[in-house]
Design goal:
Elements: E1 4-9, H1 16-24, E2 29-33, H2 42-49, E3 60-65, H3 69-81, E4 90-93, H4 98-112, E5 119-123, H5 128-139, E6 144-149, H6 152-166, E7 171-174, H7 178-184, E8 190-193, E9 215-218, E10 235-239, E11 242-245, H8 251-265, E12 272-273, H9 275-285
Parallel strand pairs: 1-2, 1-3, 3-4, 4-12, 5-6, 5-8, 6-7, 8-9, 9-11
Antiparallel strand pairs: 10-11
Helix pairs in contact: 1-8, 4-5, 4-8, 4-9, 8-9
Length: 286
C-alpha cells in the first residue's frame, strides 16, 4: 500500500523544500495543499481519516508547514479535533522548519555543554525557529530564557503564546540595535541567533571577551551571519573560548531529523510530532 503524505501548508504555496524532504523521508506520494486554515481544512481531514481500513491508516499521514507558527499550531489543533477512536492519522508540525531546526541546534548545544541552570538569550526570537529554540532551552533546564525583538510588544506576544502552549515562562526584551543586544547578553551563558537572513545581530567584538558566554548558535546562512566572527560551517568550533555552532554545522542533523520524523509518521496512525517529540528524536540522533 502506498505511503501517502498530505502536506498542509498555511501559506498560499506549499514549501518545495518540505516536499523534497518528505519524499526523502519515505513518502511514496506527497499531496500538497496551500492556504489552509482551521476553517477550510475539515473536508480534507474527513477524506483522509474515513478512507483506509484501521490496519492501513498508518500509511496515511499529515505534515503541517508554512511560515507562521501560530497559524500552524491552530491548524494542528483543528485537525486533531476531528480525530476520534481509530479514525486518526499521524501528524507532524514543522512550520518554517521550526521544530526540526530548533531541535537540531539545541541538541547540538546540549551535547557541547551544560544548559541546566544557565541563562540563555534567543536573539530575534519571535519567529518560528526562535520561539521553538527558546522553549527547548527551557525544557533542557535553562534558568532563564530571554527572547529579544526590535519591538517589545512582539517579544511579549511570543512569550504569551508559548506560555499558553507549553506552560513555560519566558522573559521578553526589546533590542532594536547592537548596543542594546550587547547589554542583554551580559551575564548570559548561551546565545542563539535566529534573525532574518543577512541581518547581523552582534559583531565579534561584542561577544568575544564575555567572561560568562559558553555556547553560541546561529541559524543564519546568508552573509553577513547573525553573529559576527562565526562561520556557517562551525561544528562545535572553539572561538575565543566559546563553543560555536553555525547553521550548516547543525544543518545535517536538521535534515536527517526531518527525514526521520517523516518516516516515523508511517509507523503508526496516532503520533503527534510537535516540539517535544521532535526534540526527543533529535537528542537520540545527536
Amino acid at each position: 500500500m502506498k505511503k501517502l503524505l498530505f502536506q498542509f501548508d498555511t501559506d498560499p504555496r506549499p514549501s518545495a523544500f518540505d516536499t523534497v524532504v518528505a519524499y526523502d523521508g519515505g513518502a511514496d506520494h506527497v499531496i500538497c495543499h496551500g492556504g489552509l486554515t482551521p476553517g477550510n481544512v475539515g473536508a480534507l481531514v474527513e477524506g483522509i481519516i474515513f478512507t483506509r481500513a484501521p490496519k492501513d491508516k498508518k500509511n496515511t499521514a499529515i505534515f503541517i508547514g508554512g511560515s507562521n507558527m501560530a497559524a500552524g499550531q491552530a491548524l494542528l489543533q483543528a485537525i486533531t479535533n476531528q480525530f476520534f477512536g481509530n479514525f486518526r492519522v499521524s501528524v507532524m508540525l514543522d512550520s518554517n522548519g521550526s521544530n526540526t531546526t530548533a531541535a537540531a541546534a539545541v541538541a547540538k548545544l546540549a551535547g557541547s555543554g551544560a544548559i541546566t541552570g544557565k541563562k540563555a538569550v534567543v536573539l530575534a526570537g519571535t519567529g518560528p525557529v526562535g520561539q521553538r529554540a527558546a522553549i527547548l532551552l527551557a525544557m533542557e533546564g535553562a534558568a532563564e530564557v530571554i527572547i529579544t525583538s526590535r519591538q517589545l510588544a512582539q517579544a511579549e506576544k511570543a512569550c504569551i503564546d508559548m506560555k499558553a502552549r507549553f506552560g513555560i515562562e519566558m522573559t521578553p526584551a526589546a533590542a532594536a540595535d547592537i548596543e542594546t543586544r550587547t547589554q542583554i547578553i551580559e551575564g548570559a551563558h548561551i546565545v542563539f541567533a535566529t534573525g532574518a537572513a543577512g541581518v547581523e545581530l552582534l559583531k565579534e567584538e561584542h561577544w568575544r571577551e564575555s567572561p560568562t558566554l559558553e555556547l553560541i548558535a546561529d541559524a543564519n546562512t546568508t552573509p553577513p551571519l547573525g553573529i559576527g566572527g562565526m562561520d556557517v560551517m562551525d561544528r562545535g568550533a572553539l572561538r575565543h573560548g566559546k563553543i560555536t555552532w553555525g547553521a550548516l554545522g547543525f544543518g545535517n542533523l536538521k535534515l536527517a531529523l526531518q527525514r526521520a520524523c517523516i518516516a516515523r509518521l508511517f509507523e503508526q496512525n496516532d503520533l503527534i510530532l510537535d516540539a517535544e517529540e521532535v526534540f526527543k528524536t533529535a537528542k537520540e540522533m545527536a
